[in-house]
Amino acid sequence: MRKQPKQQRANQMIVLLLEATALEIADRGLDRLTTNHVAQRAGVSIGSLYQYFANKEMLVDALLMQKAELLINRVQQRLSPLLDQDIATVTRAVLLGIFEQVEQDKAQRELLRHWHSLNAAPVFQTLERQMTELCRQYLMRHLDEYRIDNLPALLFVLINAVQYTIARYLGDQGSMLSQDEVIDTLVRMVESLCQPGARPWQQASAQSG
Fold first, then answer.
1. Proportion of the chain above pLDDT 70, given as a percent
2. How far is CA 16 from CA 10, 33, 42, in A?
3. Per-residue pLDDT at 193 exceeds 70
4. CA 172 from chain center: how many Å?
5. Of the spans 7-11, 69-73, 144-148, which averages the highest pLDDT?
6. Is the pLDDT score of 138 beyond 60?
7. Residue range 99-110: average pLDDT?
């Protein structure tokens, strides 16, 4: 991004340009996206666009990050009321929230279809970092319920496995798998890696025996 949004007007311009980019991607597809089309859709001059974004790749990068933030918000909305639920219930709710978010956003679906050719690494890293913290908070709340020897390693494997599986599935229009099959398998994977631990009263009983 060329010009940093230091004023409200600049912030509004960036929001306007990203909204226009999303609409153009949804209507024309990512391959046919141009800065001229975005500027026209936003109702601004191409010179104004170039004050903030040097090319369409920078527009797409910024839009990818914006979509990642929307996904995190959806995950937080799903997770917050379920913090005391078992891990299968929480995992299923979070996954359904992610799928729903993508299904209702045509531009996001188009971006996912091209994620392998985009500058997606910063987005995946952002998602991984924020999801790691959310999952850590949940698991720390349930220390007595699950036997986890190496929490950082577990979260690294789980989160990357889930996010790349979802990206691969949603980006493949010819997949023979149903959404339910993917979600069910991911839920079972999470359950198997987070093995139930002995309850405190069971541990005390074992020690006294």
1. 91
2. 10, 16, 6
3. yes
4. 17
5. 69-73
6. yes
7. 92
The residue whose two tokens read 């007595």 is: 144
Same domain flag for 49 and 64: no
| CB-CB contact of 43 with 24 (8 Å) | no
Is residue 75 scored above 60 in pLDDT? yes
Asked if residue 172 belongs to a domain, the reply is yes
Domain end: 37, 54, 71, which one? 54
Across the range 40-48, mean pLDDT stands at: 96
- Structure tokens belonging to residue 114: 């091209």
Range of 100's domain? 60-199
Give the CA count within 13 Å in the CB-facing half-sphere of 107.
21
Q: DSSP labels for the chain?
A: --S---SHHHHHHHHHHHHHHHHHHHHH-GGG--HHHHHHHHTS-HHHHHTT-SSHHHHHHHHHHHHHHHHHHHHHHHHGGGTTS-HHHHHHHHHHHHHHHHHT-HHHHHHHHTGGGS--HHHHHHHHHHHHHHHHHHHHHTTTTB--S-HHHHHHHHHHHHHHHHHHHHT-TT--S-HHHHHHHHHHHHHHHSPBPPPHHHHHHHHH-
- Whether residues 100 and 193 fall in one domain: yes
Identify whether the C-beta of residue 206 lies closer than 8 Å to the C-beta of residue 138: no
Of residues 1 and 147, more confidently modeled: 147
Q: What are phi and psi of 196, to 5 degrees?
A: -60, 135
